[in-house]
Every structure is written in structure tokens, then in C-alpha cells.
Q: What sequence folds into this?
């Protein structure tokens, strides 16, 4: 298939739409290169025209004669001094691009490449120059410092000791001379420092306690209940008839007027469905109804013949609960009330007995309050 000349690359590109490519003709001889003319000024680029149909490539000329043999390399001459670099000339203006010629006929067959010429003989190396004369000898340096003295050699072995001579006989001891006169007593020396204080001795035994002195006279207050001012007896109060009891002792009050009586409210809890009300701890019971009461128990109920009444309040937790009152608790018309289930609402009941708890008469004091 034919090729199309590409003006941007200067090559012939394969064109799939063209006809079949003809055989390549022999390469013609290369002409001598002409001198390069000055570059012309750049012309204005015209609009690119449509690419025309590719013509057949023309036959290729003969590549020419064989390459001549390379001559022998001459000896290396002495390098001359490098001259100053010349100034770079001004680039000439680029010439206008010539019109594109019409492609020729079909490309001919490529001719065979001629044989390469023989490589020339390498020239011999130049003669090495003579060695220059030796320079004068430098001055002698200063003498170095004296080195340290060597270590002292080991001492020689000690010779053997000579034999001891014979000891002479001991002479006779002479008589003792008379004792000389005693010299005068020297001055008293300075007082030495005070010694460390010794440990304190043990404490002696405590003496016998003396006899107690006679007691002073006591002035008693008048009969009755004794009062005190904090520093002396006050005026005695008239004692009531009967025994005087403490704050926790049981006592029967007769014909007494009680003003501002406050009752203690206790809060027993429900344990495994059982609620126990201890009559000894009070008369008012406030219970959080967080479970159904399957057993209601009363303890320490006063003996038969003594009336006892209690107030029982049940606070609901939002869940429906029931109370098993037991057979001893009697309600009006025999019907127990329905327990309120609304969260935080309180049902209050009054229960009274005078037969030691065999029977409890109950009624509603208020519900869902």
C-alpha cells in the first residue's frame, strides 16, 4: 500500500487508504552539499491546506562508489596555546520554507550498502621529554627533644648472712644507789572538761496516801424534785404521786392532757413478699409498695384489753400491686379496697385492735392522694 508524505516530520507515513506500494528503486548518487545560505526571515504561517492524495514514490538512485580506505594517523604534534574564544556571530534570519513538491512514484527497492573501508594505521607516540634538573636541598630541621629515661633494672639478690658471734657472760649487778631528794610539786594543771551527765535514776516508790479529812456540812434543798442552777441547788418542785419513770419506761397515764403530741413515722420494707409491723416502734408506718404483699405480720401487739391503733400508708411505684390482708383484718362489708397503682400516689388505712391482734378493724382514710 502507498505512503503519504508528512510535511511536519519530513517522513513518508503509511496510508491505509492508498493503493499498493510499488517496489523500491535503487538509491541514486548523493549530490554534493551546497553552501548553507543565510537563514531568511520567518514568514507568516499560512493556513494548512487539505492533504492531497499521495503520489507514487520515484525510483531511488545508486548510492555511489565504495568508501575509500582511511589514511594512517600521523604523530601527535605539540599542543599549541589555546587562542581566545571568538565572539559568537549573529544568527541569520530563517529563510522562507519552500513549497512542498508533489510526491513521486512508487518507492524503489533500497540498494545494497557498500563495504566499509579499512581502518588506517594508528600513528606512533611522540618522544618523552628529558627530565628537568633536581631542585636544591632544603635546610636541616631542628633536633628533636630528648626521650624519657629508661626504667631502672631489678636489684641484685642479697648475699647470705654471716654466722652470729658467741654471747659473752653477764656481768655482776652493782648496788642500788640512794634515793634522791623529791623535787618540788609542780603547778596544778588546768581543769579538764566536764564529763557526760549520767543517766537519771529510777523514780522512788509513791508514798502512802494520807488519811481523808473530815467532810464539810451539806445543806439539802426542800423535799420534792430537786432542780439545779448549774452552780447550786434551785427551788425544789412538788413531786407527783406515783412512781417517776424514765423516757423509755412503760407507764399508765391517767387524767393527763397532752399538748402538741408528735408521733414517729417508721418505714418498714417488704422482704420476699412479707411486711412486718412492729407495734413497739410507733403507730405510723409509711411503706414503699415496690412489691406485692403476700404476708402481713404484726409483732409486739399490746395485750388484750388494751386498745392499739395504727396508720398504714402505701406509696405506689407505677406497677399494679396486691395486699393479702389476712383473715384477722376486717373491712366494711367484708370487701378489701383496691390498691392504687399510679406512680407516687398514696393509699392510707387505719387499723385498730383491742384483743391483742386477734381482730383488726380496718377502714380507708384516703386513696390516690
A:
Amino acid at each position: 500500500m502507498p505512503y503519504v508524505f508528512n510535511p511536519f516530520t519530513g517522513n513518508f507515513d503509511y496510508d491505509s487508504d492508498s493503493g499498493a506500494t510499488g517496489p523500491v528503486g535503487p538509491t541514486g548518487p548523493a549530490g554534493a552539499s551546497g553552501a548553507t545560505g543565510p537563514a531568511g526571515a520567518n514568514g507568516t504561517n499560512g493556513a494548512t491546506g487539505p492533504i492531497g492524495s499521495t503520489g507514487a514514490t520515484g525510483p531511488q538512485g545508486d548510492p555511489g562508489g565504495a568508501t575509500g580506505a582511511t589514511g594512517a594517523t600521523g604523530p601527535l604534534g605539540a599542543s599549541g596555546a589555546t587562542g581566545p574564544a571568538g565572539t559568537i556571530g549573529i544568527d541569520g534570519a530563517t529563510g522562507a520554507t519552500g513549497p512542498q513538491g508533489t510526491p513521486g512514484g512508487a518507492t524503489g527497492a533500497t540498494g545494497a550498502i557498500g563495504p566499509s573501508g579499512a581502518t588506517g594505521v594508528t600513528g606512533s607516540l611522540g618522544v618523552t621529554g628529558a627530565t628537568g634538573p633536581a631542585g636544591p636541598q632544603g635546610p636541616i630541621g631542628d633536633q628533636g627533644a630528648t626521650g624519657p629515661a629508661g626504667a631502672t633494672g631489678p636489684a641484685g639478690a642479697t648475699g647470705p648472712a654471716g654466722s652470729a658471734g658467741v654471747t659473752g657472760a653477764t656481768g655482776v649487778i652493782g648496788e642500788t644507789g640512794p634515793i634522791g631528794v623529791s623535787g618540788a610539786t609542780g603547778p596544778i594543771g588546768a581543769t579538764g572538761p566536764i564529763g557526760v551527765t549520767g543517766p537519771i535514776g529510777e523514780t522512788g516508790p509513791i508514798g502512802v496516801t494520807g488519811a481523808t479529812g473530815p467532810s464539810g456540812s451539806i445543806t439539802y434543798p426542800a423535799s420534792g424534785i430537786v432542780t439545779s442552777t448549774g452552780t447550786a441547788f434551785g427551788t425544789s418542785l412538788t413531786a407527783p404521786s406515783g412512781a417517776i419513770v424514765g423516757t423509755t419506761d412503760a407507764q399508765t397515764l391517767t387524767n393527763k392532757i397532752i399538748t402538741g403530741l408528735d408521733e414517729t413515722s417508721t418505714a418498714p420494707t417488704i422482704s420476699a413478699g412479707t411486711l412486718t409491723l412492729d407495734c413497739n416502734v410507733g403507730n405510723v408506718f409509711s411503706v414503699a409498695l415496690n412489691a406485692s404483699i403476700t404476708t402481713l405480720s404484726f409483732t409486739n401487739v399490746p395485750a388484750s384489753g388494751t386498745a392499739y391503733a395504727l396508720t398504714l400508708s402505701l406509696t405506689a411505684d407505677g406497677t399494679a400491686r396486691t395486699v393479702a390482708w389476712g383473715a384477722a383484718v376486717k373491712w366494711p362489708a367484708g370487701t378489701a379496697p383496691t390498691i392504687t397503682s399510679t406512680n407516687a400516689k398514696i393509699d392510707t388505712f387505719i387499723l385498730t385492735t383491742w384483743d391483742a391482734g386477734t381482730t383488726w378493724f380496718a377502714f380507708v382514710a384516703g386513696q390516690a392522694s
Notes: The two ends are 112 Å apart (CA to CA). The chain has a mean pLDDT of 74. The first strand starts at residue 3 and ends at 6. Strands lie at 3-6, 11-14, 265-266, 274-278, 284-289, 295-299, 308-316, 329-330, 346-353, 360-366.
